Amino acid sequence: MSAAQPSLRPYWAARHVAQRPMLSQEQAAQCRPETVLVQGNTAGQAVWDPTRPDDGAEDWVLLVDQNGAGTDSFLTIQAAIESALANRAHRTTVTIAIMPGDYAGLVYVPKTNGAPLSFEFRGLGAAPQDTRITANIDAEMPVAEYLNAFAAQFEDVGSETRALFARMSCGERLGTNRSAVMRIEADEVSLSNLTIHNTYQATRKAAAPKGAQPDHFGRYSQGQHQAVALHLAGADRLCARHVHLKSFQDTLYLQAPAPGQRNRAYFANCDIEGDVDFIFGHSTAFFETCTIRTLGSRQARSWVVAPATHIDTPYGFVFAKCRFTHDGADFGRNGQSCLGRQWFEGVRASPYGTAPDPSYQTVLASDNKLAGGQSRVTRDSLLSVGKCLLVDCQIGAHISHTAPWDDWSGPGYAADGSLNSGDWRARYRPHQTCAADLTHFLAAWPDLPKLGLETVADTVPWLGEFNSTHDAMDERHD
């Protein structure tokens, strides 16, 4: 009996066959930076086209050299940031030029008080890998461990960074939101010719499931191993060119200022690698001619993207002329990896599917909670629908051809595109290709009318591809 036969499909699921939606030529033609990033604009934000060349003028340059070779240089990147903030006067832009080398430690770029200051961080090596910003930090790190490791580098910072660091230092554990090597809260930051590497190796036993065994490197393939390299923390107009981002889980976090608010990022000729949800968040982001590398080395089930785009934001992640590849490890190849899943952010109790307990009920509420009898889900969680489009991209053989898009908290799909067997989970949501899917899957839910979706276009794509080519070769990567 084949896996595709209805008798073997989980009865509780809202979707039983995976979808691979395609864009029309007209829809694909709209996937240009000048269109996507303008439509990512919110009233009051600057009109922005990062593809336009700048005038090349540098009115203020600060040099960072960890070897202290220059009399007017800084030993750390953070020291240069603090000097810029303290001495900016009427200046509006600063270039922080970084000599080649390994710069260990965190980099925080705070939102400025008063007049804004635009930062450009530029590596001065021959290639991005010549200038590396590194730190070992993860979501399950206790705050006491965080302070022991990093407090010294923030002892002499100014008020803006001091306030940011104080927010990072509260509570018991960091969580994903505070696990980044480089955190950007200031608008209009540019990065070029750099590597940002979260060197955490998924070795924290407390973050792994009970009884899990590590590999011979001490790495766990399952658990809460979020370790962000670059975090756009609510800021607008991030531009990254020739930047390498490296981690395992949650490498690049693109976070909106608040639910339903918009911010934008642009990545060109970048190299981004990881395994679990390693490009995720709410922002509108355009990726152009980038290499997106799935790592199979720690044998974690992999999704490239986990967008949580708000339903009213026109675009989420758009990839144009990008190459999706694999590190060549034995795990995760031959269709075993996914392009992504739509992040059902904050959910504890889902109204999707049919729960095995007939008394289970989920109502629209002001908080998310799984409770006996009546559970709760927020409007923000339901409207974080997740959008991702690919145009003219090269997709490696590691990505499933029949089921590139996975469900949130589902059992996954078989090679023929049929849903695997598995138990219902309280956080389940099937992948939704457009608003019509949402209203179809929740048609019987009494609280659907309260979402106010009457003006949302039913067929505008949330997920889709155009003119993808498929690469049968995986690369070998250190």
What does this protein look like?
The protein is α/β, with parallel strands linked by helices and 478 residues long. The protein has helices spanning 25-29, 33-39, 77-86, 143-150, 159-168, 379-383, 435-441; strands spanning 61-64, 73-74, 93-98, 101-104, 107-109, 118-123, 131-135, 182-184, 189-198, 230-233, 238-246, 252-255, 264-268, 271-274, 276-281, 284-288, 291-294, 303-307, 317-320, 323-326, 338-341, 361-365, 374-378, 388-391, 394-396, 405-406, 463-466, 469-471.
List the helices and strands and how they pair.
Blueprint: H1 25-29, H2 33-39, E1 61-64, E2 73-74, H3 77-86, E3 93-98, E4 101-104, E5 107-109, E6 118-123, E7 131-135, H4 143-150, H5 159-168, E8 182-184, E9 189-198, E10 230-233, E11 238-246, E12 252-255, E13 264-268, E14 271-274, E15 276-281, E16 284-288, E17 291-294, E18 303-307, E19 317-320, E20 323-326, E21 338-341, E22 361-365, E23 374-378, H6 379-383, E24 388-391, E25 394-396, E26 405-406, H7 435-441, E27 463-466, E28 469-471
Parallel strand pairs: 1-2, 1-3, 3-6, 4-7, 5-8, 6-9, 7-9, 8-10, 9-11, 10-12, 11-13, 11-14, 12-15, 13-16, 14-17, 15-18, 16-19, 17-20, 18-21, 19-24, 20-25, 21-26, 22-23, 24-27, 25-28
How many angstroms separate the termini? 42 Å
Q: Report strand %.
A: 25-35%
**Largest sheet report:** 18 strands, parallel
Helical proportion? 10-25%
Shape: globular
How many H/I helices? 7
